[in-house]
Design brief:
Blueprint (H helix, E strand, L loop, with lengths): L1 E9 L2 H30 L6 H12 L3 H4 L3 H18 L15 E4 L6 E4 L4 E6 L3 E6 L7 E10 L2 E9 L14 E6 L5 E3 L4 E2 L6 H15 L6 H35 L2 E5 L3 H4 L6 E2 L7 E2 L3 H14 L1 H15 L2 E5 L24 E3 L6 E3 H18 L15 H15 L14
Helix pairs in contact: 1-4, 2-4, 5-6, 6-9
Length: 429
């Protein structure tokens, strides 16, 4: 199976500066190629990866700042853009900014990457044009390197190796027949159907107040000033610390679930819709005045939901399930918190509070989140027991997007009007 290994790099000042230039070149190629695709779409034409790669090769002969970057990193940027446009559409793919997107680039050919271990703590890797770079080897690679991605997080650089570890998914779980339902919430991050809770406070009260102060300090600075960069760096450091706690919690929770249960059932939560912004309501009688709509309370709820990292827990569980043989499925979350798991009567009045569920029909009393988790498990077992034939709903057949677009490229180019000005070629300095 393919697995990721991430290590912290120890770059020299010259290597760090060169890595910044490579990241800037990849960002320029991404933005220019995206602009070119949108320009062609406005004209009713199409341009794909192969034509853009040809233009990129021509541009490297003209611009020195582009030719110094590894060619495979630039080509991989075009491939990533092609896949993003195929998956989300050309108009929904975002631009990459210098401040909002830290530099990141990938070396796709693992055969050209050499790795040597120096001692118990350090190792080094030879990357094209970057040369030998040292990294802190905190865990063995455990497989053959397929590619390497270099990225910057704050002031530190990291390298992520995609390795083939040679392991295969087990045919049967270590605990056959075991199953658990997971209810994700705000008061408790994850509640299991067996009555256990997985919860952690990622940002302490002092850190929340300190984060507000850092945001106020940042708001008082002038755009483009050195004080503004320092204030942004301090706020990002605190946010990074909280994010790593969330990642660690998700990994530990996923390990506990995947190693203990053969079937793990989550709710199919639409987090993006749940955290949507409340639109203001204008007063029809008073122009320019807006009616109260509970936006302040909804904003606090949105922050609480996003802070728990619900989707990250599900992703980590699916990743860990490859090594344990666990089946991870999702079910419709409708009425799971209002249904009694004993008599199956649905009544919103049974949910007396956040933690108390008392059935109005049979009188069954239980923790509200545990009751919801049991309903999720019941729905998951029913869905898992159904025979699956053919392709599952919503699945798409894998295809080679680059080659198919190349077949349409020649036809689209011939249909393009010669009188219209040609769009900007890749890249734009």
């Amino acid at each position: 199976m393919l697995a990721g290994r991430r290590y912290r790099l120890d770059l020299t000042p010259g290597q760090a500066e060169f890595a910044e230039r490579i990241g800037g070149a990849c960002r320029s190629v991404w933005n220019t190629a995206l602009e070119q695709r949108r320009t062609y779409r406005r004209r009713g034409a199409f341009i794909g990866y192969h034509e853009q790669a040809r233009q990129l090769a021509e541009a490297k002969q003209e611009f020195a700042w582009l030719s110094e970057a590894p060619g495979h990193c630039l080509q991989q940027t075009l491939i990533d853009l092609d896949q993003a446009c195929s998956r989300h559409g050309t108009w929904k793919v975002h631009w990459k900014s210098k401040t909002g997107n830290p530099p990141s680039f990938r070396f796709p050919e693992g055969a050209k990457i050499a790795i040597e271990r120096l001692n118990r703590r350090w190792a080094r890797a030879k990357l094209p044009k970057l040369g030998w770079v040292r990294f802190r080897i905190t865990r063995p690679l455990g497989g053959k390197v397929k590619n390497a991605t270099v990225s910057r997080d704050g002031t530190h650089w990291y390298v992520s190796f995609l390795v083939e570890d040679g392991l295969i998914e087990p045919e049967r779980h270590a605990h056959p027949g075991s199953a658990v339902g997971i209810d994700r919430g705000v008061a408790k991050v994850a509640t299991r159907s067996d009555g256990r809770f997985h919860h952690q406070v990622f940002a302490r009260d002092r850190e929340v107040e300190h984060a507000k102060k850092l945001q106020r300090d940042f708001a008082r600075t002038t755009k483009g000033s050195a004080r503004r960069r320092d204030a942004a760096a301090r706020a990002a450091d605190l946010a990074r610390k909280i994010r790593r706690r969330r990642e660690d919690f998700a990994a530990k929770t996923a390990c506990a679930l995947a190693t203990s249960f053969e079937l793990v059932v989550f709710e199919a939560l639409a987090t993006k819709n749940m955290t949507a912004r409340v639109e203001p309501r204008p007063d029809p009688e008073r122009p320019g005045v807006f009616l109260p709509n509970g936006a302040a309370g909804k904003s606090g709820l949105n922050r609480s939901i996003l802070d728990k990292g619900w989707h990250r827990i599900e992703l980590a569980t699916r990743s860990k399930a490859r090594y344990t043989g666990t089946n991870v499925i999702t079910v419709n979350p409708a009425y799971t918190s209002q249904t009694c798991n004993v008599c199956t009567v649905v009544d919103r009045k049974s949910r007396e509070s956040q933690a108390v569920f008392r059935c109005t029909s049979c009188g069954h009393t239980e923790h509200a989140d545990v009751n919801a988790a049991k309903n999720i498990l019941t729905a998951g077992r029913a869905e898992h027991a159904q025979p699956r034939t053919g392709v599952r709903a919503g699945a798409r057949k894998p295809r080679n997007r680059v080659s198919r677009k190349a077949n349409r490229q020649a036809t689209a180019a011939q249909a393009t009007a010669q009188t219209e000005p040609e769009p900007a070629e890749i890249p734009r300095p």
